[in-house]
Amino acid sequence: MVLPVCDSEQRLVGIITADDIFEIISEEIYEDYALMQGVVPSEKSYLETSFMTLAKKRIIWLLFLMLSATVTGGIIERYESILSTAVALTVFIPMLMDSGGNSGSQSSTLIIQSLALDELDFSDCLRVVWKEFRVGLLVGMILALVNILRMILFTDTSLLVMMTVSVTLLITIVLAKLVGGILPLLAKKLKQDPAVMAGPLVTTIVNACALLIYFKVAQILIGL
Amino acid sequence: MVLPVCDSEQRLVGIITADDIFEIISEEIYEDYALMQGVVPSEKSYLETSFMTLAKKRIIWLLFLMLSATVTGGIIERYESILSTAVALTVFIPMLMDSGGNSGSQSSTLIIQSLALDELDFSDCLRVVWKEFRVGLLVGMILALVNILRMILFTDTSLLVMMTVSVTLLITIVLAKLVGGILPLLAKKLKQDPAVMAGPLVTTIVNACALLIYFKVAQILIGL
């Protein structure tokens, strides 16, 4: 398949081959995903790119993400008194943040992909919310149950800490699925690239929320 | 462009259109990235897929990642005494784990992409290591410096904690870049799909290493 390219007077000025089209399709998709992982896409191949260029393309997002982690740090600082009375709670912070972050990026990946393939639109927002809510509830309950079993079998976690962790896990997963589902749609509506806006933002928002929920639940259940 | 498909006696049994080829290319790439984000790829569109199916496609990786977070939890538990004497250290755990995880997935994304485009091979291993090492060193130093400034200006972190955090950040970033660079190449060498093996594994390995380095450096510098 070769497509002719003509000027305004119908004179042939060039051709577009099937190869050109294939290349553009795959490059566009790769660009989206590079952006989602916080890498500014490059025209050159990896081995051709100097380490300085690679570093430049990566540093912006890393700086942004490191500074946004100030938020999670600030939350921990604010509730330091809770952690110092119940150090056991610290053990579950990475698990809660990771599970939340992963749940969120699973959803945002799928929604960004569907947006790119034109299978979804902002008008489907409520359907996405309802679907992600149910997925989150089901997945969250299974994760919480497996985690309770793990804690009972392999750790000597107190009942109150187990309850705090489980309730937080369930709420965080549901919230992560909702944020991961809605944010790319919102980005599209605001005429921003969903891949750029949604990827790292989802993790940042979900991480902060996971911690806030954790400490709030701990205050209520353990009464600290 | 239409390609004929013939049987062994050269009779036409079907055709392959350009559309078929485009679809296969973009689906293959999307599949890779869905797997990297821990989602089992689907043939159907998002809205056509039931919430039960979506949940099923996501639960396996979430369970795997949650259980692998047992490792980070275990490391924190083992060094609980350090955290109870220096609760301030807890504040930086999410930042260190996130920065490490992100640095690692930036590298693995790029390497997986280069492998898919056949721009890289296992034989380029040493070149990748050398490039990622320098990128990590440069990026890590910039991040550490910006973070020191931030800590001095906006927090009242003690000098020893600042040093612990900075040294850990630098080592973690370099390590994350190396792990993110090597793991996909190793997966390819072992004839595994780099996207499946490298994505979630990089984060898990880097997170665990970040914590171990943090506590080791704290023991040496703060002398706990």
Automatic annotation (TrEMBL), chains A, B:
* TM annotation in the entry: 59-76, 135-153, 159-183, 195-215
Q: How does it sit in the membrane?
A: Multi-pass membrane protein
Residues in SLC41A/MgtE integral membrane domain copies: 93-215
- Classification via SUPFAM superfamilies: CBS-domain pair, MgtE membrane domain-like
Claim: Transport is one of the keywords in the record: yes
Tell where it localizes: Cell membrane; Membrane
Instruction: State any single GO MF term.
Output: metal ion binding
Q: Which UniProt keywords apply?
A: Cell membrane, Magnesium, Membrane, Metal-binding, Transmembrane, Transmembrane helix, Transport
Its main localization is membrane
Q: What binding partners and quaternary form does the record give?
A: Homodimer.
What PANTHER family does the record tag this protein with?
A: MAGNESIUM TRANSPORTER MGTE
Protein name stated in the entry: Magnesium transporter MgtE
Q: Which organism is it from?
A: Streptococcus chenjunshii
Which classification does the entry list for the species?
A: Bacteria, Bacillati, Bacillota, Bacilli, Lactobacillales
